[in-house]
Specification:
The chain is of the alpha/beta class and 134 residues long. It has five helices and five strands; from the N terminus they run βαβαβαβαβα. The protein has one domain: Rossmann fold. The chain has a five-stranded parallel β-sheet with strand order 2-1-3-4-5, with helices on both faces. Helix 1 links the parallel strand 1 and strand 2. About 4% of the residues have low confidence.
């Protein structure tokens, strides 16, 4: 990588942010952090990350879902909608059951990628490398 890829971590869990930041920086990535959805939206505009790592449950049970919707569909974020969203959650179930299929009027859109916590580190890093190759 001639220029380090920038990963935006949006998660209210400080321990998770510290551990994932440490991992990503050890792998040669730059990281930026936000502890809420609101702060995350500001960081997207300020930093233009290459990938967004997004928690689901923060201030509300579905804040991550709503943030994903804003990034992918709201006009003021149109320049950022192609940034891959890697959603990470402690919810332990099939992500397809969490994200309704987008048909007609879209109520909710699936993230580009989904990982359950604790994160499978080798799979996570491999996925991240593949995303950044595209």
């Amino acid at each position: 990588m001639s220029e380090k890829a920038k990963i935006l971590i949006i998660d209210d869990d400080v321990d998770f942010r510290v551990s994932i930041r440490t991992l990503l920086q050890a792998e040669g990535y730059d990281t930026v952090e936000a502890e809420s959805g609101k702060q995350g939206l500001e960081k997207i505009k300020e930093e233009t990350p290459d990938v967004i790592l997004l928690d689901i449950m923060m201030e509300t049970m579905d804040e991550g879902y709503l943030l994903n919707q804003v990034i992918k569909f709201q006009k003021q974020f149109e320049d950022f909608k192609s940034i891959p969203v890697l959603m990470v959650s402690s919810i332990q179930e099939d992500p397809l059951s969490r994200f309704p299929a987008a048909t007609g009027q879209v109520d909710m859109i699936t993230p580009d990628y989904y990982f359950s916590k604790p994160v499978d580190i080798p799979r996570f890093l491999e996925t991240l490398k593949n995303i950044l190759k595209k």
